[in-house]
């Protein structure tokens, strides 16, 4: 061991102070210049498994894992040199050999010639950090998916905050206004487009925010854009989401009724003309394609009779009816039914048509089939809820498992040890025999705790051989002596797996083997690892009782395994049937790892 500097001064402590120090949850100790323990409180037994007497006089550096020793030497040297180090972490070995991450607080006292130290176990904090990283990854993934959707839509899309600054613009919006993202980001929209002040843009946007109601309008924007736009703005407490599309060509086509009629007739969107009494006076061909109703079936009848379906939103219908009666433009989304009673999501836009005197003559309705978009939104929402439910259920299962193990096993063992100790204390029974039984029961308790710790902890985060971690897992399951296991990992013998892929494969195999032990009644299990092209392939086959995969597909265990595989762009399939055993195949791409 490296010598820090030679001298030793033993600390002085009273008995009450000793009791106080021993009651702390952190490990308190002193080191001499040579890095040897001169004092250590009893908390070390709870955290590292050592009695204070076992460590007194030994070198602290011997407890540090090899990978962290060099930085620990430097840490000691800097403290003795008078530097104040606020944050330092390394990893200790417990008495049983397991690693424990440690956080330090230390100060060198030159007069005493001692290093006064406190350390604490930060295992739980690191686990929480890993969980936070996982949730952050899922959140970023969902944000990226939403960003991709916004980039692909054909409408221009802007997000304004309550100070009228642009905080987001999609690609189509930038193309329409002929700007780069850097030119518009966090810019005030009225300063960026001063010609919009005092126009319908300002009036409608401010109305939407003030009343917290969406607005829809069409208008012309002069220089430098010189385009007609249709705008739909949706308010929230944080600002305004604005969808707009260039309708310059549509406005030009409105110069003649014939050209307008031709365009409307051939468009993929359903179009209808609605009279002021609410009856339909004209529809295009797309109306029949989308709704199934012909012109003879709808002309002369109330438009609302064909819009309302079994699951239609009554509030949206009332809103549309109110705006229609007020002569205002509107846009709503509604779940309707076709003539064949099939469900169809429609985006319905209504625009008043004015005569030469400025009075409303009739309404112009456009129906867009947005079923695919709605199905995608619902699918994404279901996946989000399923992922959240699976994560929460897995956490609860782990807590329940840990609580049950502590209560049913360790608690009973320790209760028996307490009983034996009381008998010895009261002079009842053979003290030597009772002491021997107590020692054995305590060893059983230690073994139980080790087993629980190994189940709850993730595989080591060092890049070690993949084979060794899998072999360790198989050995731990084989120790139950319930099932014969065979492992074929030769093709990936020397393969080094990064921690994300290693943890995913480890947890999937651990979950599946646990299910086999609990439910399959299998006699033998074959675990095979292979490399096919650029993929790592895991195949697990058992000769157990099997199960109906359709009934078990939505189980938490299977959902967790599939989610883990998909999080690394992998695939997981399970084939089974009652009486025919089970085969699990998981495949992971490794070219990007």
Automatic annotation (TrEMBL):
E.C. code: 2.7.13.3
Domain PAS: from-to ranges: 13-83, 256-327
Domain spans labelled PAC: 328-382
Record-annotated Histidine kinase domain positions: 405-592
PROSITE patterns reported in the protein's UniProt record: HIS_KIN (PS50109), PAC (PS50113), PAS (PS50112)
Gene Ontology CC: one annotated term: membrane
Catalytic reaction(s) noted: ATP + protein L-histidine = ADP + protein N-phospho-L-histidine
Entry-linked Pfam families: HATPase_c (PF02518), HisKA_3 (PF07730), PAS_4 (PF08448), PAS_9 (PF13426)
UniProt keyword terms in alphabetical order: ATP-binding, Kinase, Nucleotide-binding, Phosphoprotein, Transferase, Two-component regulatory system
UniProt xrefs under SUPFAM superfamilies: ATPase domain of HSP90 chaperone/DNA topoisomerase II/histidine kinase, PYP-like sensor domain (PAS domain)
Entry's Gene Ontology molecular function annotations: ATP binding; phosphorelay sensor kinase activity; protein dimerization activity
Record NCBIfam families: sensory_box
Protein name: histidine kinase
Organism: Paraflavisolibacter caeni
